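Data card: per-record layout.
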Amino acid sequence: MPVRPRTRWLLIAIAAIFTAAALALAVRALVNLDRYRPQVISYLQQKLGKQVEIARLTLTFFPLSIRVDDFGVKNPPLFPPGYIAKIARVDADLDFRALLHRQVIVKSLVLVNPVIHLTSDPDGPWNFENPNARVSQNTLPLGVIYKLQIRRGELLASNLLRSDAPGPVFFQAHDISAELEDVNLIGIISLSSSSASDGQGLVRATRLRFGTVDARNFSSKFQLSPRKVLFNDAKAEVYGGGVGGALSFDLFGKNPAFTASLRFDGIEVAHLLLAFEHARGKMNGRMEGDLTLAGEIEHTPRPLTGMRGKGHVTVRHGEVPSLQLNANLMKLVRFNNLGPAKENPSSFNLISTDLELANLRILCRAIDIDGYGVDIDGYGSVKVDGSDELDYQGVAQITTKQGFFTNTFARLSGATLKDGKLSFPFRVGGTVDAPVFSKSKAARTH
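The structure for this 446-residue chain is written out next.
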């Protein structure tokens, strides 16, 4: 019985598929990539200058790629025992045409569950660097990776203390996903690299922490150059509000440095202050403003104490329970709580101030407080070195008109009267936990 043409072609296709599958299995059996694992480890150790671990190597054909299981790079002897990188799986897609010409070119890398821990030594070097690495066109496959993806990654950065003991983690990001282009691996680890960029792309993290401040759902453009990292057009959710701007790290020198330019809105102050032990419960309300920060990350147990910055902050509809602004000010002129502040004398409608941070001291040159019944213009500073010492002064005005006897006693106590409203200079000393209010003979206002 003759075979129909359509059936003949179907049988040929099935036979071709089985032949190709059998051939692939035979080639895979012949090319057992895992037997070359010692040579691959030796090559990587030479290029990275670090001890390398690989649990298994596997070659796949559709697409042509190498799979690396349980990849690890250990810290060099200068650093404490541990790993720079631990990656559950690496998938490297190869260029087939280049392979026919006996060239190994990695078109793309996918890192699954990588954990990266970057550490800086007090003398300057980082654990990921290789002083002997040199940028060359002959360093493939550790040259430029055209596309690099990160899935469910984790990044930690810390300094060693001057005693070479491990210091605190000052930066961390969790559940990282990223898509980067033109990543120059040799340029990253080489001190001689002069490239303008060692990679760029987009990065996201479910959680990011810098110092004591937490951010959620972070996303940013990312650029990597020799010893420099830039997050640009960054956005994140921070303490019930949003923040945007730029953050950069400069890894040159003995102390890494950072700069940040931020704009924020809707921040819950009470939630924010939970991150600072001595400030918890001191204020609530919603905060907005802008802030620029810069500083070196020191090799001490408090690596960000050298931070400096300036900006402007506005807090709306909140309370300062420990200060009891209106109650304390009213006691100074010895009259009873009257007017809108009677029910909650620690509340305010708006606080607006500039600020400068330097030498563990926050200086405000112009403070405007619109309380419920009291308006304040002043200036001063608070130390953030743990002592929380206050040094503020200004002029307060009681916005509610008072009676004849109250005004008389108030004027005898040093207050002035204008349009039936009292105003007087004051000073605030003590600490954030125990502020001390007193009358002042004169106060400079801005």
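Known properties of this structure: The chain has seven helices and 21 strands. Residues 320-439 form one domain.

See the next section for split statistics.
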